[in-house]
Design a protein that fits this description.
Distance between the termini: 25 Å
Order of helices and strands: EHEHEHEHHEHHEHEHEHH
Structural class: alpha/beta
Number of helices: 11
CATH class: Alpha Beta
Number of strands: 8
Bound molecules: 2-phosphoglycolic acid
Strand order of the largest sheet: 1-2-3-4-5-6-7-8
Helix content: 40-55%
Radius of gyration: 17 Å
Largest sheet: 8 strands, parallel, barrel
CATH topology: TIM Barrel
């Protein structure tokens, strides 16, 4: 299973800035990218076409940060998986904590989006994660299980495992500089794997589980080596090509030589 090193640029960067960063990233990493890694960038919609063109190297992909659950129609302000694909996206993101907690998306809607994106031919990364009060109340597994079961409810049981990934992103670690500790990550990822296996059977052992939340060049090598960590989803530290290129290569033989 290849590790997936993903950048979430959120609502940052003009088209020009995004395209330039994507080109720099390819220049810094494409000839050093280990065979067992892939790189994915989620730019804002306006920059998707430019970024997907710029990520013109083996193992590099672009994705859409969100989409609606229709092909087309009178849904002002929304965008469809087909439109994302048309602009060069191979992936879609669902359930990001900012969509859940800032934009008010519920578990069921996130589940509809996850299934619809897959049906439309996108690869999908479903994000899950607990808030700090839920962790303090000992509810991490309860929250993860609820978000996973609802998020995966309509996904076909025989979905190809390389088309569906889960990102564990504890809300309290996103954009705060407070990274989850190794034990917290290993426990949460092990639990996510267990739920995935209960839903999809043995196929789930081939699904990627990404960690997200204050991943930086300095901590990525340690995180990516943990059990059941098959990639990272990076916000702030992915915005500069130099910083994200160090994350992309972190812990690899090449990075250790540099
Ligand atoms: P962060 O964001 O790396 O800035 O914590 C991660 C995310 O929101 O996906």
């Amino acid at each position: 299973m290849k590790k997936l090193m993903a950048a979430n640029w959120k609502m940052y960067k003009t088209w020009d800035e995004a395209e330039t960063t994507a080109r720099e990233l390819v220049g810094l990493t494409a000839d050093k990218l280990p065979e067992d890694r892939e790189v994915l960038v989620f730019p804002p919609f306006t920059a998707l076409k430019g970024v997907s063109n710029a990520l013109d190297a083996d193992g590099f992909f672009a994705g859409g940060q969100d989409y609606y659950i229709e092909k087309e129609g009178a849904f002002t302000g929304e965008i469809s998986p087909m439109m994302l694909k048309d602009a060069g996206a191979a992936y879609g993101l669902t359930g990001h904590s900012e969509r859940r907690h800032v934009l008010g998306e519920g578990d069921e809607f996130v589940g509809q989006k996850t299934a619809y994106g897959l049906e439309c031919g996108l690869k999908v990364i479903l994000c899950v994660g607990e808030k700090i009060d839920e962790r303090r109340a000992g509810k991490v597994e309860e929250v993860l299980e609820r978000q996973l079961r609802a998020g995966l409810a309509d996904v076909p049981r025989d979905v190809a495992p390389d088309r569906l990934s889960v990102a564990y992103e504890p809300v309290w670690a996103i954009g705060t500089g407070e990274v989850a500790g190794p034990a917290e990550i290993v426990d949460a990822h092990g639990f996510v794997r267990k739920i995935l296996v209960s839903v999809f059977g043995e196929n789930a052992n081939e699904m990627r589980i990404l960690y997200g939340g204050s991943v930086k060049p300095d901590n990525c090598g340690e995180i990516i080596a943990l059990d059941n960590v098959d990639g990272v989803l990076v916000g702030g530290a992915s915005l500069q090509s130099e910083s994200f290129s160090r994350i992309v290569l972190a812990g690899s033989a090449i990075a250790n030589k540099v």
